[in-house]
Amino acid sequence: MIKPIILTKGNFQPKDLITTVSESNRKIDPTRENQLETLWIEKERNAKEKGKLIYNGLSYRLNSLKAQNDKLFLDFGIFDFKTRECLPETQNYYETTEEYWRKGCHTLATVKTSDEKYLMVELSGKSMNKNPTDFLGGIMETEPAIKSGNDIFKSLYKELEEEAFILETDIAGSALKMVYINGNTNVGFYFEILLKITSEEMKERFDSQAKEIDIKSLKIMSRPEYINVLENHNPNKQFLATQIEI
Predict the structure, then answer these.
(1) How far is residue 242's CA from residue 131's CA, in Å, rounded to a whole number?
(2) pLDDT at residue 127 in the model
(3) Among the four 83, 147, 160, 185, which has the fewest Cβ within 10 Å?
């Protein structure tokens, strides 16, 4: 792993994000690239044996980020999940320079209810996500396509609804607070979300709905409990515990 790198911090709204999509500018090492298929076949075999979900879809990676005049100019490339997932397992990957890193994009959010509780999800262990408890959010996939700053926010809102049944109309306030390269060389778009509804209303709604196969339960915590969970989690979440403002 690497030490997380903050690319930008602020209080960004959709209008502040200018997006383009180009060819991926990830530098290719042919020797490393030739390892990917073998690693992926092994992952598929292990997933099948353990009854876990795995698929090779398309997602975005960050080609570049430039902050100028209170705007973020974001250029994305596209690559497959196989490359995204297997690249760090190639030989001496973490000894390479940034131009070789995967930089796969994902959203994640601190979600605070109207009664000042914090939400996370407990995972079932049936997906490739190895975390027992995680932020709400997910991989920034190419469907639906990201063509504007609003689409980046929509990418998160889609995950909030799928994972915790939070509707866009439930949101009282949202902001993109930080873009950073995490310890695994993926790029996190970290949001802070304020809800109009209480934790009890969220729990009742969540308990009454059919869940995604990889979601086990909704975790509702006080702020000290939330920070404690993050501080005792993996290094990426320990880093984020120091960044939360709400």
Answers:
(1) 19
(2) 56
(3) 147
